[in-house]
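Project standup — Tuesday

K.O.: blocked on the structure for the chain from last sprint. Re-posting the sequence here as requested.
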Amino acid sequence: MDELILAIEECDLSENAVCAPENVNDLFEFRTPIIEILGFPITRLVFLILLAGLLSVAIIYFGLRKKATRPGKYQLSIESLMTFVRDEIAIGIIGPVGIKYFPYLMSLFIFILIGNMFEITPFVNFPITSRMAIPLFLSLLTWVIFIVAGFKRNGISYLTGIIWPPGVPVALKPLVGLIEFFSTFFVRPFSLAVRLFANLVAGHVMLSLLLTTAFVSISAFIAGDITAVKGLFGIAWWALALAIFMFEMIVILLQAYIFTLLSAVYIDTSINVEH
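H.V.: unblocked you, prediction finished:
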């Protein structure tokens, strides 16, 4: 948080209503290594990505390693979550063959959920999905899976069905085919990534700036550096940040669900071309 601390130190409440760094990229870039492993620098972002991966594996492993007759609350919650993803997303969207893609969809949901939750984690306050590389990598992974699944299930008819779509008037087939081709092979992975990225970036920026301003204002008021009126503004910023914090809790869960759901929909449209 060196960049954010710098923004706090340089904030002048007599001129600024909200404390912010000169460059908004300072809220997302963490280039100073925490440690180095075999000459490879581990920055804060890399550490959080690795942590999200390890936590995803640990949550599933420790939640399901023992099939207790009377499962505890933790195991029950994990089993309920897995049942939901399996029945409502994997099988519910793709059909019986969706059970084959359940491990991927479950891993995707858990990883994105944990990565998003870093936004509201004290002393972290940085969702890894607010860096475009992460959503883009996940969306490209989904893209590869549904393209491969389409060709594996339908062969070359998968491509011909996109270029020359059935059930469309002959006069419109070239135009619709062109739109479908670019949508399937170019637009889908990009739109999937941008949807997740944009929502988490917006929340991260708002929370960071409001919490920073609230901290500076209240601290300055306690120290006697500003008037009571400006101190009240700090309390107002803190209250607004708290409201956004509560809203972001919903966004965090919703965006993980939407990304996983759309991944299942894209897989379904690739293997079940008759739909």
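K.O.: great, moving the ticket to review. The chain has one domain: 46-271. The chain is about 70% helix and 0% strand.
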